[in-house]
Structures are given as C-alpha cells and as structure tokens.
C-alpha cells in the first residue's frame, strides 16, 4: 500500500490508523504478554487471496472477549495493514456465535483503575479497527452482545446471518458500555432508537438490524461467510489507493463540519487523480472499457 503523498500531512495526522496508548495501561500489556503461545490461539488469521479472515476463537465460551484477545486483535490487524497482499479484512467468530461480549469472569474483582485500563485497551484496539486504512468487514452470526456489538460497530461494513442478534446488554447488569457502545451506536442508527436500545439492552434481531441500518445485508447462516468473503473480494478488486483515501475522506470528514469535509474530499481527489492507478483506470475506460491492470 503506498504511503500518503507528502502534502497529505497537512490534512491527515501521521500514521492516522494508530491512536496513542495511555501509559497507565502498561500493566495490561505486561499481563497480556505473559502467555504468548495461548494468546496466539485466541484469534486466528486465515488468508484467502487478498482477503484476511480474523477468527475469534473461543467457541466454548461463545467467543467472550478477554483483554488478551483485544491485544491479539490489534496485533493481527497491524500485520494485515503491513501485508501488501491483504486488501480487505473480515472478522468472524468460530462456533455458534460471533461474540457474547466481554469476558465477565475477567472483569470480576477488578478495582476502578484496572477496569478503566481494561476499557482503554478495548477502546484503543477498536479504534485501530475503525482507523484501519484497509476495509474491515464484520460477518456476524448468532449472538453479538455487549463488546461483540461494539466490535462489529467499529468495523466499516457489517453483514450478518439470519440467526444474528445484537445487543448492548450492559444496562441489564446496572452498567454501561465501555468499548464505544454509547458513541458508535447513535452514529449508526436513529438517535431515538439508540437511546431506547441502550436503556433497555434487549436483543435486536437480524431483520430489525437491517431495517435500522446497523447491518448492510442479512444472509442465510450457511451462506454468510462465503458471501462476506465475496463482498470483500469485490472491494479488493478496486484500486488500493482510491479505497484508502475514500475511507479516510469519510472517516476524517465526519469529524468536522460539511465544508471542511468538502475541502478534504477535493484535496484527496486531486492527489489520487495523479496516482498510477487512477491514470491506468482512465486509460482502461477509453480503451473499449477494459478492466484496469492492477498490481
């Protein structure tokens, strides 16, 4: 993946996919590094051509997410960003569920600072997903509760199977979300619906999730993974530079007023227009509409 043109530094922060990590989470990093061999099995990477599949791999625990899993997710995602062969990432869950959310056994007994540091770990690594310079697709089946929904919402595209159910269940435990549930849900669905769901915590069925715009597609369970990978392959056929800066234009533009976003879009479009890929795309268009040659 090409580096941003020098003039883009006036528009985008350097390494914009990497949010800073507060120093106070050092204890979490040390704890997460204690058992590296076991940590590597918590999330698995599978390559399918230009698509990298990241599998949540605790099926016996309904893929309940531990702090170690969050660090493993960040590690694998950064590996995908550095791998020029990978164009799109798909996150899915082994077994019957996408993820039942955060591992409650891990949370028991934590003091206030430990709990806060764990939430920082969650937010840091989910922000890596959201800021990824390559598209990340969540393929959800079964339960996506609590942190499972938060992980899916951090992805750029969400698709699900007919069995999928989403829920920010924290309110039922007299808690509130700590991985972005109160912030991302109102940005993805109507505000009134977000309030109602966050205050009740009741599951959202797949059809309802599609109706409110939380997911793009609902497919039969047996077809979910293949169709999610096919969607990823279709995106992977697009020019990497155009994909990267389209995503940056959307993400950064949404953080400010419309006029700032329009200026950002104009600057990015002008720069991408000078790329080899854009020039090849234009040549292909005028040569009887042939497919552009991609490297």
Structure description:
- The chain is α/β, with parallel strands linked by helices and 295 residues long.
- The protein has two domains: 12-236, 2-enoyl-CoA Hydratase, Chain A, domain 1; 240-286, Lyase 2-enoyl-coa Hydratase, Chain  A, domain 2 (Orthogonal Bundle).
- 47% of the residues lie in helices and 13% in strands.
- The chain contains 13 helices and nine strands.
- The protein has helices spanning 26-32, 36-42, 67-82, 104-107, 112-130, 147-154, 181-188, 191-200, 206-211, 224-236, 240-253, 258-272, 276-286, and strands spanning 43-48, 51-56, 88-93, 136-140, 143-145, 157-161, 165-167, 204-205, 217-219.
- The strands form two sheets. It has a six-stranded mixed β-sheet, sandwiched between helices.
- Strand 1 and strand 2 form a beta hairpin.
- Helix 3 (67-82) runs parallel beside helix 5 (112-130) and helix 6 (147-154) crosses helix 7 (181-188).
- The N and C termini lie close together (11 Å).
- The relative contact order is 0.12.
């Amino acid at each position: 993946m090409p580096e941003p043109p020098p003039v883009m530094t006036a528009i985008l922060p350097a390494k914009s996919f990497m949010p800073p990590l507060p120093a106070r989470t050092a204890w979490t990093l040390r704890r997460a590094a204690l058992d590296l061999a076991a940590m590597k099995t918590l999330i698995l990477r599978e390559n399918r051509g230009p698509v990298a599949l990241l599998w949540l791999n605790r099926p016996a625990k309904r893929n309940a997410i531990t702090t170690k899993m969050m660090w493993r997710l960040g590690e694998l995602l950064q590996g995908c960003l550095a791998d020029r062969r990978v164009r799109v990432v798909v996150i899915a869950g082994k077994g019957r569920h996408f993820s039942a959310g955060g591992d409650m056994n891990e949370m028991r007994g934590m003091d206030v600072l430990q709990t806060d540091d764990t939430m920082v770990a969650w937010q840091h690594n989910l922000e890596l997903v959201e800021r990824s310079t390559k598209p990340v697709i969540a393929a959800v089946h079964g339960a996506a509760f609590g942190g499972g929904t938060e992980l899916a919402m951090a992805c750029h595209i969400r698709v699900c199977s007919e069995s999928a159910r989403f829920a920010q269940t924290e309110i039922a435990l007299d808690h509130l979300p700590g991985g972005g549930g109160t912030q991302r849900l109102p940005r993805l669905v109507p505000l009134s619906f977000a309030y109602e769901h966050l205050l009740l915590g009741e599951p959202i069925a797949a059809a309802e999730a599609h109706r409110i715009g939380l997911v793009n597609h609902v497919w039969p369970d047996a077809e979910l993974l293949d169709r999610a990978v096919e969607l990823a392959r279709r995106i992977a056929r697009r020019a990497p530079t155009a994909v990267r800066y389209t995503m940056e234009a959307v993400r950064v533009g949404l953080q400010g007023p419309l006029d700032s976003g329009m200026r950002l879009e104009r600057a990015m479009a002008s720069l991408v227009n000078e790329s080899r890929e854009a020039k090849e795309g234009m040549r292909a268009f005028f040569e009887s509409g042939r497919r552009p040659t991609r490297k």
